[in-house]
Request: fold
Amino acid sequence: MKKSRLLLCSLFLAAAVFVGGCKDTNGPDDDVAPGGVTNEEQAMKYYATNDEFVTNDEVTFADAAVQPFDYGSFGKIDASVTPIRWGRFISGVTRTVTTTVQPGDTTAIALVEKTIVGTLKIRAITTNGDTVTIDKPFTDKSTRYVVFKRVDRNAKRYWTNWVPVASSLVKGGTVEPNNSVNITKVALYLPADTITVDDPLNYFLRYKWLKIFKGGRKDLPELTGGQPVKLDVTVVSASADTDLVALRFGFDKSHQKRVRLTLVSEVNNGDGTYTRVFEASRTVPVYMHFHQGAFHLGVEAITKATMFDDQAPYSVSWWGIPYRVR
Reply:
C-alpha cells in the first residue's frame, strides 16, 4: 500500500462518501454483536460493508425507474437511436473486504471492493420513428478504503473495539475492455469551501459524528437549501464523440434527480484520447434541507455510443461526492 495512504490513515483521515442517506449515529451499535461476527476482524468487515456511509453509493447509482435525462439540443443526430429516457438497474452486488491492521495496532484499513451487475435500460426512438426499449447488461467494479480506529481492547465486547472513522471516495466504472471513458478530476465549489479531487482513493473526509479525533483532510461539505453549488468534472475518453456527464443527487429514490453537465472545453491528446471538462451550476433544492444526514452527489460519465448506439457496449465511469445536510 502506498506510503501516502498509510500516512493519511495514520492521521485518522475520515470520510463519508457518495450518495443515499445516512443516520446521524454515534458509531456502530454496541448492544450486541452483529450476526455471524465472532472476532475483531469480522466486526471490521461487517461495519465496512454495512455502515451507511459505505453502502449508500449503491442507492445513488441505482434507478427506481426509467427516467428522463436532460440531453439538451443535439440537432440532427447520426445515430441508430435517440434516447428519451433511461435507467440503471442493479441486480446483484458482490462485496469483498480485506482488512490490514497498521503497525501499533491502533489504526486499521479495510479495502472494500464491489462487483456490480445489472442492466442499463434505454427508452429510445429509432431512425424509423419507432419507440423501443434497449437493454444493455453491465458489470461495474468499485473500490474504496475505510479507516478504523481502535477505541478499546474489550475481550468480551470485541465487536466494539474498532470504529470506522474515515472513508475514501468511491471510484467505480465499467470493467475492461469496455472502460473507454474515465473521470480524472472533480472540483466542487461551495460558497465557503472548494473540494478538488484527482485521486478518489486517497482523498478522505471526516465522519459527522467524529469529534474526538483531530487531524484529517476535511469534514464533509455542508449544503443547505437555496445554496449555490458549482461542479467541474474532467474526463479522459477514447471516444471522438462528446461524452455525456450527469450529476446525480437526492436523499432517496423518490427524490433522485439527474442533471446533465455542459461541455466547456475539449483537447485532442493526440493519442486517440480526448480530455474534456464539463460543468454545472445548481441551487441546492430547498426540500433537501429538511432531510438531515449524510448523502452523496454522484458523478457519472457515459460514452455517447452507450446511449445512442443500440449495438455499442456500455461504458461508464462514476465517482461520488459526499455532503452533509444539518
Remarks:
- The first strand starts at residue 67 and ends at 68.
- Residues 3-325 form one domain.
- The mean pLDDT is 79.
